[in-house]
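Task: complex structure prediction.
Instruction: return structure tokens for all chains below.
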Amino acid sequence: MSNVFAIAHKEIRSYFASPVAYVVIGLFALLFGYFYVAILTWFVQQSMQASMGMGGGALSLNQQFVRPLLMNATVVLLFVMPMITMRTYAEEKRSGTMELLLTSPLTDLQIILGKFLGALTLYSSMLAVTLIYVGVLFVFGNPEWKPIVTAYLGLLLFGGAFISVGMLISSFTRNQIVAGMITFGVFLLLWVIDWLGNFAGPAAEPIINYLSITQHFDDFAKGVIDTKHLIYYVSFITFGLFLTAKSVDSERWRG
Amino acid sequence: MIEVQHLTKRYGRVTAVDDVTFRVERGEILGFLGPNGAGKTTTMRVITGYMPPTEGRVIVAGFDVFDQPIEAKRRTGYLPETPPLYPDMTVREYLTFVARIKGVPAAERKARVEQVMKRVWVTDMASRHCGKLSKGYRQRVGLAQAVLHNPDVLVLDEPTAGLDPKQIIETRQLIKELAGDHTIILSTHILPEVSQTCQRVVIINRGRVVAVDTPENLTHRLRGAETMYVLVEAPVDATPALQAVAGVTRVTVADRHDRAIGYEVQGVRDADIRRELARTVVAQQWGLLELRPLRMSLEEVFLQVTTEELTEKADQAPEADV
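Output:
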């Protein structure tokens, strides 16, 4: 376990020693802020109308504000996450430090978990910054905290799934840009796969919808922790890391 | 300490290393010599556990690198061809990280890093980023990284490549100092390096071991027909007289001086013709200014050994011109 932390610590260090961490956190915070303002403006307008008796009942801060806000935040992740994961293996292979890691008394699993943990920590600090915006809501309004907690748990799992795929793709190449582009493409595909679901017919529809990475996030954003979705993300992550381990191992044999 | 048994490594259909067997005793420095692409790096990568062998086994400090990789790696230090440095870490941070993953206990880590930095003379660069170091310092930090956990076995892939002459001498000195506590394999294609630092040499060509011996024996054994250099001060051409000496097969003029002429005299294999040559020159009342064997340099040995395979093939060809 100590080895896992050693690798994780090294990963976090190199994220913050390079501009990567700052760009990623800054970009995410900026776009999150933009969505925040835009959706809040819309929300205020709607609730004014509602209070003047033109709409239905009172609007829920959680359902009509926090939920669409976080759904939009996941779109930003689509662009930001490849920046976090593209270097994980590609850079080690390019600079030859892979030789150091693979000839040290470490198991492949320790290296993979360390890298995963490092990327997850950077991702968590990205999310932590957005908590400031959410905190403001508590000062001026009274949202329920429980759905917000589940939504962030959902975001964390969602990001974890992205990281595991990103690492897998990064382990295929020694070129960061190639890794980043492919990761983006794969993420996008996982994103829009449920569009197909609507036309796929009764047999394929549930399968395609199940594969969609966003569908599983929706319940978390609503404040529901369903084991079905929990299992989806956890198995997604496990499978991604397992394939990464296989990819690293096969590269060894092929040389 | 290191046992390589029938090691074969294939990349797809290409055989990089073919049935290589050798062993290195405790405390020994073994030179691993071969032209580029001979399979040196591949062999070293298998020894260090970076990649598994296709066939055969490697035992390091009593542990099979394939079956007990963690135990074997704990006892191995490896300096790859390009030092594996993280450019955005300082030297001290980097070495501390390496100490951690190599399993140096937390309590000893700090002292150990400082000690090793002193040993390879990088203390003055301790807070410099690895990416900003010169080639010589990178190589030294790479060496520091390899010895950090005080391994039994050190595997150094071309440790002096790309260094300036002063650094090369320093690095060789350092390697010799390390030899007492560690068993060392170092690869190189620079021949003087082998004769200066190594006790034993393995010459590898096209993935096969072509010779294993001490540098002295190799030069001796492969010398074959012995050639003498004789510098004679004589009024006439000494060639016929020298040619008449028993055991001499060929005499050629090597160089001409003011009053003396240097001859290269080739004798038959395993015959010492020095005594007879001297007697002949003195009997003619000529002045014998110099008489010495022309030793084949390791360079020539190397070329001879690595091209032997080619000539053998040519010999076997039915229409070969012999």
